[in-house]
Amino acid sequence: MTDDPQNGGGTGSHVSSGAGRVALLLLLATATAVFLAESWVHHGQLDDAYIAYRYADNLVSGLGLVYNPGERVEGITNLLWALLVAGGVALGVPAGVAGHVLGLVFGVAALVATAVYAGAGLARSRLGVAGLAPWIVLSSVSFALWSTSGMETPLLAAATTAALAAEARGRPGWATAAALVATLVRPDGVLVAAVILGFHVAGRWRQGWRAWACPAAYAAGILLLTGFRLVYYGSPVPNTFYAKVGGIPFERGFRYLLDFFRGGAGMLLVPAVIAVIRDRRWWPGAAFCVATALYVVAVGGDVFPHGRFLLPVLPCLAAFAVRGAAEAYAVDRYAGIFVSLSIPAAIAWHVFGTVPVLVFGVVVLLSGAWAAAVALRRRWIGVVAVATVAAVGVWLSAAHLDAVRGAMQGSMRSQELARIRRGFRVLEHMGYKRAQVMRSRPDPIRLVAGGAIGSFGFFSGLPIVDLYGLVDPEIARSNPVMREGSVVLPGHQRSNAAAIFARRPDYILIPKPEAWVSDLLPANVELTAHPDLEAHYEWDEEVWGYRRTNPR
Questions:
Q1: Residue 197 in contact with residue 214, Cβ under 8 Å?
Q2: Does residue 509 sit in helix, strand or coil?
Q3: H/E run at residue 450
Q4: Would strands 448-450 and 545-548 be described as parallel, antiparallel, or unpaired?
């Protein structure tokens, strides 16, 4: 079982305790330095980040926490993040720079929280083991990408991991506070709160009212938040809830979950399961992982790649994996060695994603074989598995040497980060150029209808109605639709062409039907087919959209 945290380990315990702490700090400091070194440069940011930036700029400018001045609609899902960006703007920092700096700060916080969580209950002499967990998180494309995207993801990952770490260390007050922060960041932060407070009450129900002190404090915070939303926005939940939830088949969410595990997280499952089985302190974290997975499947996943919604799960799996490997090693040295193979395998899979799927099978086979050897007390099972895999590995390496060399020469992680960041930069530039063109038009622009309202909306400052309902309650509450010839994208299934044309926007920023895949979205299909488009609008090549021919 897990070591007593106060147990130094016998003779020389003070020396070994110091060595364990030094190892932990060195591993954590190195991981932090690597993260900052590779992420310091301000890359292109996700278009959606600019929606929160516009809210932040408007708040500091005295227009309110709104997207369109005069329209109180909570079209963001990251309230606390927008407020933090607004704090940076108030200090004179541009919103994009503030978002990048905050991403770095909370990316580091997520690495620290991962190490703290992995070290919960670990003997001081063995704290170095916990220092491996941040490296698993750091190696993933998801962490590197979403920590520098301008989005709230690193803050959510840091808050949820901190909440679980505090709960595992017997600090319910701090756990409740971190869970409340997670809920302020995104509404799905309620998942970690429900898990932590549920276990808290279940373990302390005999204490009477004291068992309910933390849940009561959290409930008070939620009541204040809900009260603010009702008074300021007139809705108990963000408008994005109505705009994004529903209309997505479960199978898409399941594929999203499967892609997350195939991307490297699946390598961690065997040691993670060992840790959860052998130590009850990981049960809340395991429940959080399951709850998050079910939530992601239920909402159909995310429109963006690399498991953004599942990133808060990765620190949990990393912490479980290193502790599970340590538990296996404590039971049987040889079993521990081979179960531990899953950790470098996961890191290698994250970095070199071009490694054949065969590697995944090999690691799972070895880990499973040695886990069986421990459970059945038959070490020969593990020995046979190792000998078989070694023989097959030698044969395959000799037969496919060029393929092995090629896989090691290119890093999927770096290539994928560069590719996606280029895409972010292109969309940023497109939004900026379109905003410049429209702001230079001599005629005043009363309203623009568009789908990509992030960077364009931020740089233009024009009144905008979002085609998918993010900042429009009427469209957000329309039924999600599945139109013939349209694609299925989470958060993009709302459509109400009648409401759009009733407002007579000066511009409708959708591409021609043959131009791009986005016109296969339900809203674009409906707008393109609506008779008012042809009757009152003409194509404007300069803005890559439609201009009204008879403006008021």
A1: yes
A2: strand
A3: strand 448-450
A4: unpaired
pLDDT, tens digit (0-9, with 9 covering 90-100), for 399-448: 555 554 444 445 677 788 888 889 999 999 999 999 999 999 988 999 99
Q: CA-CA distance, 375 to 377, in Å (whole number)?
A: 6
Please tell me the distance from the alpha carbon of residue 442 to that of residue 444, in angstroms, as a whole number: 6
What pLDDT digit, counting tens, does each position of 379-397 carry?
Answer: 667 667 767 766 766 665 5
Three-state DSSP string of 331-392? HCHHHHHHHCCHHHHHHHHHHCCCCCHHHHHHHHHHHHHHHHHHHHCCHHHHHHHHHHHHHH
CA 46 to CA 426: how far, in whole Å?
10
DSSP 549: S
Q: Decide: helix, strand or coil at residue 547.
A: strand
Average pLDDT value for residue range 350-370: 62
Determine phi and psi for 97, rounding to 5 degrees.
-70, -40
CA neighbor of 57 nearest in space, from 3, 110, 94: 94
* Chain CA centroid to CA 69, Å: 30
Question: Any bridge partners for residue 465, and if so which?
Answer: 449
CB burial string 307-320: b at 16+ within 10 A, e below: bbbbbbbbbbbbbb
Q: Which tokens go with 495?
A: 């459509």
For position 551, what pLDDT does the model report? 63
DSSP label of 212: G
Tell me how far apart the alpha carbons of residues 413 and 354 are, in angstroms, rounded to a whole number: 10
Distances (CA, A) of 434 to 218, 287, 453: 44, 46, 11
Q: Is the distance from CB of 76 to CB of 238 less than 8 angstroms?
A: yes
Give the separation between CA 67 and CA 458, rounded to whole angstroms: 9
Residues contacting 468, CB < 8 A, separation 6+: 243, 451, 475, 491, 492, 493, 494, 495, 521, 523
Q: Which of 489, 508, 521, 496 is nearest to 244 (CA)?
A: 489
Q: Look up residue 476 and give its two tokens.
A: 């957000």
